[in-house]
Structures
1.
Amino acid sequence: MAKSDGKVKVMGRWQCPFTMRARIALNIKSVNYELVEARPWDGQSQVLHESKSNPVMVHGDKSICESLNIVEYIDEIWPYAPSIVPSDPLERVTARFWAGYLKDQ
């Protein structure tokens, strides 16, 4: 299986800004995905419950947690333009700093 092949699901709450971050990245790359609304109270989203993070992206048989990790994964797995993460190391670390800062606020 090519690394960009496989069904993509995003598990999270549609109104969550971190879930939106992952969905925006998928939309930028024109990747088809299914949004699975997280309902941890009914046991539906076992992967989400076990990871204790929101969102979780499932790509084929792989699960990726945390929205910033998901964005980087999307950018590397679907490398065609437009790029989401800067290619310049200083710009990339600056972008990671600000994304982390906003996440912690």
2.
Amino acid sequence: MHHLLLDVWKHDITAGRPKLAAWMEEMNKIEAYTQTKHNREDTLNYLKKRFLIQQ
């Protein structure tokens, strides 16, 4: 969801939240977590189809 907010609405949920930004950075360092991450573009396309109205 973070990618959708950042890409579509240009809203960074970590701005002004240093603990959230640090937590996200630490999560990205964990090998077990990074193995479950998906391609950002694929995720964005899916979220746009699912949650945004297509015109």
3.
Amino acid sequence: MRVEQPHLRRSAPSSSQRRSDAEQPLVIIVDDDGSVQEALSELILSAGFQPVCFSSTRELLDADVLDRPGCLILDVRMPGASGLDLQRHLSQTGNPKPVIFLTGHGDIPMTVQAMKAGAVDFLTKPVRDQTLLDAVIAGIAMD
């Protein structure tokens, strides 16, 4: 099953939820693999956060979501601009967002580059759910 792009998933509002949709932090997932998007969305949603998915950096840049509080989960290698390219672009345009890299193709130089540029974390697939959620919580707190 493929996630529609862009796809915003919402959890049922609870009585303790006081934030409006515009104030609710977004966890922006950019990965060209629909099954990864779906799995990450379900995890993020189960933790009470609002996920939104894109299959490319261009799709994300064309959407109007970067002004919302939250963080990004980026795949490093994707067709077109990479996650590292997106991190650099956001920083250069004055819109740095907390970034968590999640990849199956990472190496030490890539990790060093991402962390020096301010990434919250650089995680490899497969990743433990709690490890990723800890990084998401840290990222949201930074924004």
